[in-house]
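This part of the workshop introduces the protein records we will be handling. The question running through the whole workshop is how a given chain folds. To make this concrete, we reproduce a full record directly below:
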Amino acid sequence: MKNPSPFRRDNMKKGIYVLPNLFTTASLFCGFYSAVASMKGLFEVAAIAIILAAVLDALDGRIARMTNTTSKFGAEYDSLSDLVAFGVAPSLLAYNWSLAAYGKWGWLAAFLFTACGALRLARFNIQTGIIDSRVFNGLPIPGAAAVVASGVLIFYKLGQEGKFESPLVLIGVVAIAIFMVSSIKYHSFKDLNFFARKPFMSFVLIVFILAIVIAEPQIMIFTFALGYSLSGPAWWLFRLTRRAYEGLRQHRTEVTKTDCK
């Protein structure tokens, strides 16, 4: 009887799935190109590259699930790509566009964004299959990157050029970084099934939204990105307020019953 080998077989010899990893590579390229563009002062181009990277990142996972080509290699590669495209690239964009004016506080805020993005990805990887897939634990890193990129796009949409040295950017970058590593729940939209039958008015609403996005892409992308980043804290505050209200009402009911006795 042969003794079992103490080494596991290298699954990489079997090869990797090409199609989803091509989309991941394209997302990584967009993130790298964004970093180069922001260092050259091409802030609008850098922002567009990040948005394109987010679209490609959303497609690679769906394509892998639809074609049954998911793999551990693909998941790890996707996380590393996300760190570059949505952690490093937005940090460099924010720093070169605005935060450099604040000296060490500026680059510390940019680093905080990158570090929190890395922590968010690491936590997501170990919590896969543990928490409900319908929600994200903390703001997803592509959503955080979209806020930074769409902020630059709306700046140029309003007719401005060059840098925007405002403390609002510094505060916003720090806040988004905190949202990423928080335990605030965000809807993942993974329960949406576009292949199932939907009411007719739902289709009309989708067409209407797409028409607005095509007409004013910068405004709508910024609205969606900022709205999504604030949806988690808003829902958390709503639940906290409702819980406090129900506790106060229950306390009043108990006091009333005690007085009646």
Observations:
- DSSP finds eight helices and two strands in the chain.
